[in-house]
Amino acid sequence: MEKGLEAGRLTLSVIVITKNEAAHIRACLDSVAFADEVIVLDSGSADDTVALAGQWGARVVQTPDWPGFGPQKNRALELARCDWVLSLDADERVTPELAAEIQALLRHPGHDAYRVARLSELCGRQIRHSGWWPDHVLRLFRRGTARFTEAAVHEKVVTQGSVGTLRHHLLHFPYPDLESLIAKANRYSTDAAAMMYARGKRCGPLGMLGHGIWTFIRIYFLRRGFLDGRQGLVLALFAASGSIFRYAKLMLFEQTRKGGT
Predict the structure, then answer these.
(1) Could you give the C-alpha distances from 101 to 94, 140, 249, in angstroms and in order?
(2) Gap between the Cα atoms of 93 and 87, Å rounded
(3) Which of 32, 85, 149, 250 is spaced 20 to 30 Å from 94 by Cα?
C-alpha cells in the first residue's frame, strides 16, 4: 500500500512471507498501514491469504516452490524498493507504540539496523518467562546493509552495520491452540534434522533422550517457565518433545541413508 512521503522521512518497505495465513494476514497488514509499501511473498497458499493481502492493497508475489525460511525471506527482501526494510511474520503485529517509534526513527536513524523485542502469546496467555521474553530479533534495517542467513529454519538477519534496540515491542501469536503447536513442532523438527544431517551431526538413542530432558529442565526451571502457569508447563513439555522429535528424525534419517533397519 503506497503512501505519500512525509518530508524529511526515509521510506519503509514491509516484507511478509506467507503460506496459508488467512487467519493472521489482515491483522498483520493493518498493523503496518503506515509503511510506504507492503510486500507479501506467498509460497502456494491454499486458503484466502493471497486474496486477502491483495484486497488490503499489498503487493503480492507468488512463488511455486518453498526453499526454506531464510532463502524465501531473501527473495522478499530483493523485492523491496524503499530506504528501510521491516521484516514481519504473518503472526506478528506492530503495536501502535512501536509504529510511532519506527516513524520517528526514520527521520533521524542512529544505526543501520534495529532489534526489537517480541511478546509472544501461547493459547491465550502472554509468556514472560520460559526464555520467550524479551526475545530480541533483528527485523528493521537499512536496505542493502543486511540479509537473512540461508537457513531453512531459525533464520536470522546478519549485518555488518551498527545495531540499536527499539524501546517498544512486537506482539506475536504463534500458537492459538495445541494443534498448531504440534503441527509446527513436527514441521520444524523435520527441517532441523535435515539441516543437522547436512552439517555432519549425528545422534544415538541416549543423546536423543538427553536433549529432550535437558530442554525441559532449561525452559521450565532455569528459565522459570513455572511462572507462566499451565502454559509454561505445556511449553516446556512441547519444547522437550520437539527436541526429541528433531534428534529422533536425525537418528532415523542417518539409519535410512545407511540402509539399516
Answers:
(1) 10, 12, 43
(2) 11
(3) 149
Taking Cα atoms as reference points, which of 27, 234, 244, 212 lies closest to residue 132? 234
Query: Please, what sign has the CA dihedral across residues 15, 21, 23, 26?
Result: positive
pLDDT digits (tens, 9 = 90+) for 125-142: 999 999 999 999 999 999
Neighbours of 110 (CB within 10 A): 8
Rounded Cα distance, 179 and 196, in Å:
26
List the grid coordinates of 225.
517457565
Do residues 210 and 163 make contact, with C-beta atoms less than 8 angstroms apart?
no
Q: Is the peptide bond between 64 and the residue preceding it cis, with omega within 30 degrees of 0?
A: no
Rounded Cα distance between 94 and 31, Å, is 5
Q: What is the identity of the amino acid at 229?
A: G
CA distance 234 to 88: 26
Alpha-carbon separation of residue 70 from 28, 73, 154, 208 (angstroms): 20, 5, 8, 26
Instruction: Give the whole-angstrom CA distance, residue 194 versus residue 253.
Output: 8
Judge residue 177's burial from the number of C-beta atoms within 10 Å of its C-beta, 0-12 exposed, 13-18 middle, 19 or more buried: exposed
Q: What pLDDT digit, counting tens, does each position of 45-59 carry?
A: 999 999 999 999 999
- Rounded-to-integer distance, Cα 97 and Cα 170, Å: 10
Beta-bridge partner residues of 39: 15, 59
Q: Scanning the structure block, which residue is given the C-alpha cell 527521520?
A: 107
Low-confidence ranges of the chain (pLDDT < 50): 1-2, 4
